[in-house]
Write a structure and sequence with these properties.
single chain; alpha+beta; OB fold (Dihydrolipoamide Acetyltransferase, E2P); Herpes Virus-1; 39% helix; NA-bd_OB-fold; DNA repair protein RecO
Length: 260
């Protein structure tokens, strides 16, 4: 028998009474764990197998699946569970983890990061800051997984970036001259046949604008007194879409709730 701590990322029903749980565990990484009878009213395990809760799990290896045989909820993030908007933000975090991380690759740093992220979301009174914190968590997760961009030099010419422009199609940063050449003269670059679509956080008066330097410094891990929330959220979501090659369903839900 194996014992560990973890967070339920997702669950789905199997037949009439059973359920499969996708759990990120402290010691074994992401696991797909089967729970027999979880849908029964008298199930002793299912109350402890909830999202937005830190729990202890006991599981054993069966012939075809690994089975949960014990569960004890240690901490429930009640402020998330009691607020529809925080549920949406929490689901965004769990959905990102489930999609970005492969099973059976343990990393305690990721487990600690998940716990800290849920604690921060649970404690936030400002819902906009809670959503921003969720995006920063996803950014840190992407960095841990090795998806770190080049911040200091233009991805095309290699010059030091004074006024960085972000290309959401490639996840790269460019100087103004190279960015405008790519966006407006795609045939010369051989990359795009159409202009890069404008995005509200990065345009003014119909023209694409450089990033705030504070946004870039913040993403590099340097604390800043003031940051542009919208710019950072846009960059993080663009990076995640790029590496997943899709938009998460939880992100669509957030867009409907918050108009982000």
């Amino acid at each position: 028998m194996y014992t560990t701590q973890g967070f339920v990322l997702r669950k789905y029903n199997i037949e009439e009474a059973d359920r499969m749980y996708i759990i990120y565990t402290k010691d074994y990484g992401k696991k797909n764990l089967f729970c027999k009878g979880a849908l029964k009213i008298k199930s002793k395990l299912s109350p402890h197998l909830a999202e937005f809760a830190d729990a202890d799990f006991d599981f054993v290896k069966g012939k075809s699946v690994e089975k949960i045989v014990g569960a004890r909820m240690e901490k429930s993030f009640v402020n998330i569970r009691g607020d529809l908007r925080k549920i949406a933000i929490g689901n965004f975090i769990l959905d990102a983890i489930d999609n970005l991380i492969k099973p059976d690759h343990p990393d305690r740093e990721i487990y600690i990061l998940i716990k800290k992220a849920l604690e921060i979301i649970d404690g936030h009174k400002d819902i906009r800051k809670a959503y921003f914190s969720a995006n920063i968590f996803i950014w840190k997760l992407l960095i841990l997984l090795g998806y770190k961009p080049e911040f200091d030099k233009c991805a095309k010419c290699g010059m030091k970036l004074k006024e960085p422009y972000f290309d959401e199609r490639t996840g790269e940063f460019f100087c103004g001259e190279c960015f405008r050449r790519r966006a407006g003269a795609g045939s010369r670059d051989g990359l795009y046949r159409e202009k890069i679509p404008p995005n509200p956080p990065l345009q003014r008066g119909g023209e694409r604008t450089p990033l705030c330097r504070s946004s870039l410094e913040y993403l590099k891990g340097n604390p800043m007194a003031e940051v542009n929330f919208d710019e950072i959220i846009f960059i993080v979501k663009s990076f995640m879409r790029l590496h997943l090659e899709k938009v998460l369903k939880s992100e669509v839900w957030i867009t409907k709730l918050f108009d982000y």
